[in-house]
Amino acid sequence: MRRILIIDDEDDIREVAALSLEATAGWEIITANSGAKGIEVAVAQQPDAILMDVMMPEVDGPTTFRNMQQNSAISNIPVLLLTAKVQGVDQRRFAGLGVAAVLFKPFDPLTLADQISEVLGWNKNGHSEQPPPSEPAV
Amino acid sequence: MTENQLRKQTTSPSEDPNGEIDALLADLWQRHLPTLRERLDLLTRTAAEAATGTLDETARAEAQSVAHKLSGNLGMFGYHKAGGIASQIEHIFKTPTPETLTDLASLTQDLHETLASSL
Questions:
Q1: A15 to B87: CB separation less than 8 angstroms, yes or no
Q2: Residue A90 sits in which domain range?
Q3: How far does the CA of residue B73 sit from the closest CA of chain A (Å)?
Q4: How far is B55 from chain A (nearest CA, A)?
Q5: Residues of B whose CB is below 8 A from A51
Q6: Chain-chain contact of B28 with A16 (C-beta, under 8 angstroms)
Q7: Of the residues A49, A70, A108, B76, which has the fewest C-beta atoms closer than 10 A?
């Protein structure tokens, strides 16, 4: 069974994303409400993937991702950034960070697991079908 | 439940994910209402400041952040039109010009009216 870490400062987003992934895919969900806590949880719990908001107070998603990349305990965990619809220039900036994918809010709770599975090459039962794409999906 | 605590462990998808998610969204919307009203009020106040030329940087940044959160949250609850209006407001606060700042009052009014029946 896959374990997913959701990092978002918005309680509602965390709750809806968590329940939708549990209900539609049966994944195990852990959450954190800041980038700093997210790194702590990721190191301790070793999730299979991280779904992280871009715009968070104090340390934003891109900065948290760079910090994760410098931590060998978690640098290999795929990270999907979650952001409100952005202009093309922002899309390119996020894609250039090296994240696995950029997903957009508002997301559909019923298809979020499918989106994640597709970009990571997973089937929803938790098995890898193919290696994740080398280029970020946006 | 603490933030870093494992949530309930499930071994298989729900038999009725649609119903479970709909129920959660309805419950969350009710809990979200006080925060939503505060955010709408903040946007209205900030739009009035923008119209009178008294908008300072702190208020602009806070309003941009609030509009950003609304643009992400409202669509998730099914309020796609309202989320789109919030996105327009966010864009104006992000890159304000004298011309676009005057649009904020009507946009915040549109946002209120679009959500009025659900507030």
A1: no
A2: 3-120
A3: 6
A4: 21
A5: none
A6: yes
A7: A70
The answer to whether A31 contacts B17, with C-beta atoms less than 8 Å apart, is no
CATH number at residue A100: 3.40.50.2300
Residue whose tokens read 């908001």? A53
Neighbouring CB atoms inside 10 A of A36's CB total: 15
Does the residue A84 lie in any domain?
yes
Q: Which residues of B touch A55 (CB under 8 A)?
A: 65, 68
Q: Is B62 helix (H, G, I), strand (E, B) or coil?
A: helix
Residue with tokens 């008294």: B54
Instruction: Name which residue leads in pLDDT, B19 or A82.
Output: A82
pLDDT digits (tens, 9 = 90+) for A17-71: 998 999 899 999 999 999 999 999 999 999 999 999 998 888 999 999 999 999 9
Å from B31 to nearest chain A CA? 9
pLDDT given at position A132:
55
Q: H or E element: which one contains A38? A: helix A35-45
Chain A residue whose CA is closest to B25: A16
Backbone angles phi, psi at B115, to 5 degrees: -100, -5
Indicate the number of domains in chain A.
Answer: 1
ipTM for the complex?
0.70
